[in-house]
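Data availability (excerpt). The following record was deposited with the supplementary files.
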Amino acid sequence: MATMKVNQQEILTTAEDIADKVLKQSKYFLPFFARLCLVSTFLEDGFRMWFQWDDQKHYIHASWGCGWFLATFFVGFNLIGQIGGSLMVLTRFRVDYACGMLFGIVVLQTLAYTILWDVQFLLRNLSLVGALLLLFAESRSEGKTIFAGLPSLGDNKPLSYLQLTGRVLVIFMFTTVLRLELSIIYIVQNVVATSLMVLVTIGYKTKLSALLLVLWLLGLNCYLNAWWSVPSYSPMRDFLKYDFFQTLSVVGGLLMVVSLGPGGVSMDEQKKRW
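Predicted structure:
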């Protein structure tokens, strides 16, 4: 039993060392890649508004009976807000304002498309909100660090709690992909995924756990939401494409966790003080 515990500790230490090396090698482009993944769903949906302009206006008009003027305003606001906010994030221009704009669009779409009554879509949107909170935390912390590109939340309690909230909300995405089936494969998958979700939530071995969740979610996303394999005339293509990019945005949120670290409200941070 003692030998098994030693072996498990050695494996964990080796995995953490590998993760640290990967992060050191990628520290110059990881934050940008995380932001690109995070805003990918907003870019995709913004361009969808452009290419499906008439269809989107008709849907809003038919669903809410709000008239063509308000339907046009809604679609135009979503188009400009999502593409403009995403470009602001990528160019790092007033990222805090961009986060507020994108957050407003998530709330607006949740109400307009009646996502409140669909638990799966609601949880995914909450995950997206969590990713935006992590992005906001990064933008707020960058001004407080000496070295550019190496943000640190330090003892800033409001940002630490903001980061904790972001971590918890991001994890909601994984509850939508758990499979409640009595199969060895699914049982093992659910146990491993749930364990990693708990570790990220409480902030223990956070960077390693978040990195493993990134790899797991990327694999599931490419397998379950392979929209490129569906003919362009099929309505299913749009649904899969939407899910793919929304999941990719949550991957961006997890990469923010990997880049930023767990923050002050976490077991990793508390261990440093023991």
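Summary of structural features: The two ends are 27 Å apart (CA to CA).
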